[in-house]
Automatic annotation (TrEMBL):
Pfam families: LigB. InterPro entries: Xdiol_dOase_suB (IPR004183). Keywords: Dioxygenase, Oxidoreductase. SUPFAM superfamilies: LigB-like. The keyword Oxidoreductase applies. The keyword Oxidoreductase applies. This is Protocatechuate 3,4-dioxygenase. It comes from Emcibacter nanhaiensis.
Length: 280
């Protein structure tokens, strides 16, 4: 049977991709951020997951405001990246796992989650930056991927509870898969940040640190927040916390915190990193 080995949270801002392309790892601005990731990479090298389920939000490359699904899942043989500006070069496609994708899709539909199923899918920095951070220079090209895209752009967006519940259902789906594969769940985005309006540049370290603590120990404590609550407390883009909650929902109730880092500011964003070992 399939096994979920753990979960990772990470920021996905495009400036990280530009720094990776320029190998700007040691500058004063970036060093503390990039120095956070070797423990996660070492764990991945040790555990060797077969599949990475990457939960992210699209920023206009595959979906736009005229057609923005609440939940979309890739079921393709591969996922292509294209130029989206930001100074990030295009990178080679990522291999998919259509068989596991369809199993998850069918299981989620049976639990009454309405999905957009993508047999072709372009992936932007929300997906590619985390993959580059976890597997630099594609050290593990054999890792297959399943993109799970959640709307955090066009309101109304799904609530923390809705995303956590879908994560729970996704975890059940993966555990019921009949093949011996190891799966890591990556929740991307955030933490607090706002890119527009009078509060542009807004950060809330106290709330961020509270969320990072609760994600590990008591994620249910975050489920009563509404989307307006998250906008007020974490900024208009801080609603990406729901992507972390979906990841956490897919794991067991009890997890082991292996690594934690919080870095501000990174491109007007509070960057959070968690590595959680699943204990089922």
């Amino acid at each position: 049977m399939a096994k979920i080995v753990g979960g990772i949270t990470t920021s996905h801002i495009p400036a990280i991709g530009k720094a990776i392309a320029e190998k700007d790892f040691e500058s004063h601005y970036w060093k503390a951020f990039f120095d956070s990731y070797p423990p996660v990479r070492e764990w991945l090298d040790e555990v060797k997951p077969d599949v990475a389920v990457v939960i992210y939000n699209d920023h206009g490359l595959n979906f736009f405001l005229n057609a923005m699904p609440t939940f979309a899942i890739g079921a393709a043989q591969e996922y292509r990246n294209e130029d989206e500006g930001w100074g990030i070069p295009e990178i080679p496609p990522f291999p998919g796992d259509p068989k596991l994708s369809w199993h998850i899709i069918e299981s989620l539909m049976a639990e009454e989650f309405d999905l957009t199923t993508c047999q072709e899918m372009k992936v932007d920095h929300g997906f590619t930056v985390p993959m580059q951070l976890m597997w630099p220079e594609r050290r593990s090209p054999e890792v297959r991927t399943i993109p799970v895209c959640v709307n955090t752009v066009q309101h109304p967006v799904p609530s923390p509870k809705r995303c956590y519940d879908m994560g729970k259902a996704m975890g059940r789906a993966i555990r019921s898969y009949g093949e011996d594969v190891k799966v890591v769940i990556i929740g991307t985005g955030g933490l607090s940040h706002q890119l527009e309006g009078e509060r542009a540049g807004f950060l809330n370290q106290e709330f961020d640190e509270y969320c990072m603590e609760k994600i590990v120990e008591d994620p249910v404590a975050l489920l009563d927040y509404s989307i307006p609550d998250l906008v007020r407390l974490a900024g208009s883009q801080g609603v990406e916390l729901v992507l972390w909650l979906m990841m956490r929902g897919a794991l067991s109730d009890k997890v082991n915190l292996l690594h934690k880092k919080y870095t501000i500011p990174i491109s007007n964003t509070a960057a959070g990193l968690l590595l959680l070992e699943n204990l089922d």
